[in-house]
Structure formats: C-alpha cells, structure tokens
C-alpha cells in the first residue's frame, strides 16, 4: 500500500484485558519505520517516533489524561 499526501490510515482496536502496552509500526521494513506508535497503559503515555537505518529518532511522549485509555476499551488511532 502506498501512502500519498492527504491520505488517511485509520485503525480501531481493542487490546486484551491486562495488556500493558502494544505497538503499531508503519514502514518499509523492520529497519525503516516511518511511524512507531506505542501506547503504554501502565505509565499512561503514548510514545511515538521513527526508525531509520536501525536508529530510532527522538522520542515524542504524550501523557494521557483520558480515563477511557485502558486495555478494555476500543481505541481509534
């Protein structure tokens, strides 16, 4: 699948109960990831960054204050 400017990619998931975190990686291969999206329920943050040539970029953290942010709820990414 090729993404172009203006395209959207939507995901709706429900993590397993008791899940501490999960990751969604979108990229060309395991060494080149355009988007690493990693919600961490146990620390109530979302980690986002990218990977180029096996090297991760600067981490962007976002604290989550929404009480619906839990493994038992559907999430839209």
UniProtKB/TrEMBL annotation:
InterPro entries: ConA-like_dom_sf (IPR013320), Galectin_CRD (IPR001079). It holds the Pfam family Gal-bind_lectin. The keyword Lyase does not apply. SUPFAM superfamilies: Concanavalin A-like lectins/glucanases. One of its GO terms (molecular function) is carbohydrate binding. Keywords: Lectin. Residues 1-77 form the Galectin domain. PROSITE patterns: GALECTIN. It comes from Monopterus albus. Coiled coil: none annotated. This is Galectin.
